[in-house]
Amino acid sequence: MAEPKALRCVTCGREFPPWSVDYFCPRCGFPAGNLEVLYDRDKPLRRFPDPTRFSLWRYGELLPVGEEHAVRLRAGGTPLYPWAQAAEELGLGALWIKDDTLQPTASCKDRGTAVTVAVAKRLGRKALACASTGNAASSLAGFCAAGGIPCYIFVPKNAPAPKIAQLVAFGAFVFRVDGNYDQAFALALAASQEFGWYNRSDGLNPMVVEGNKTVAFEIWEELGDVPEAVVVAVGDGAVIAGVCKGFLELKEAGLAPRVPKVFGVQAAGAAAVAHAFARFQRGEPILPAEEPAETLADSIRVGKPA
């Protein structure tokens, strides 16, 4: 593992000792004070990736917690498929699909969950919680079930019934909030602070991004290089943040010559992040404002990304 050097606020730049705060900068508050995990880049990597491991823990040299704290579900190590037909139709030299549906709970959220649950165990936290439209909740419920850890899930009222059924099957305590995702998020945060639960919610816990970044390591390893571009679906932005951080850390470690272009894709009816970027280009405040979020793609139905 790589012991974090500090946690840095993405807004004011203030740094905190590792593990001294959980989620956000006390000065800037939430959501402006999201934290980024920093490492000591002066220390050379000893063995990266670790050939004795066949999951995301093979990249332990760039992760903030060791596999000894992980529950026994194998996250990461998913295939990268070439899609020649689509590449030809789009006029591309090559196109690849990273299939993260082949993780324990069939979700890309398992990467962030695996690391976050391991951190919770290292810190001695006795329960975890999160707000989710479905996938992150299923992921957390599954990993907590594997580790025998109590799990508290807050879902919006429009969360799909099959996803709620999966939570119940895993033994999670489920709270169906009479509101949207953003209201479920706020309630999950308040309850976590009140009862001492470790909150895995996307856009809140910086350890989620640490797990998500391993998808970039796998793409780099499987291709033998970094691709020209990566396209990522965006809801709250935790996955795309991990993709960007992963490729940046490869470059900082001297393992990759550059960072690829990263494109985020949102549904037209739930495009708060895209609108925030548009405001930035106009010189306006960039923090996403709360917007109506309506799309059949429930996993990215987020009106107020953290």
Q: CATH topology, which one?
A: Rossmann fold
Determine the fraction of residues in helical runs and give it as a percent range: 25-40%
Radius of gyration: 19 Å
Strand order of the largest sheet: 8-7-6-9
- Unreliable sequence segments: none
Termini, distance in Å?
28 Å
How much of the residues is beta strand, in percent?
5-15%
> In CATH's first tier, which class applies?
Alpha Beta
Number-wise, the strands total: 11
Count the DSSP helices: 9
Structural class: alpha/beta
Order of helices and strands: EEEEHEHEHEHEHEHHEHEH
CATH architecture: 3-Layer(aba) Sandwich
Q: Can you summarize the main beta sheet?
A: 4 strands, parallel
Average predicted confidence as pLDDT: 93
Shape: globular
Essential attributes:
single chain, 306 residues, Rossmann fold, three-stranded antiparallel β-sheet, 9 helices, globular
Question: What would you note in describing this structure?
Answer:
- Helix 2 (110-123) packs across helix 3 (135-147) and helix 2 (110-123) crosses helix 6 (206-212).
- The chain is globular.
- The longest helix has 15 residues, at 181-195.
- With 306 residues, the protein is of the alpha/beta class.
- The protein is built from nine helices and eleven strands.
- Helices cover 33% and strands 14% of the residues.
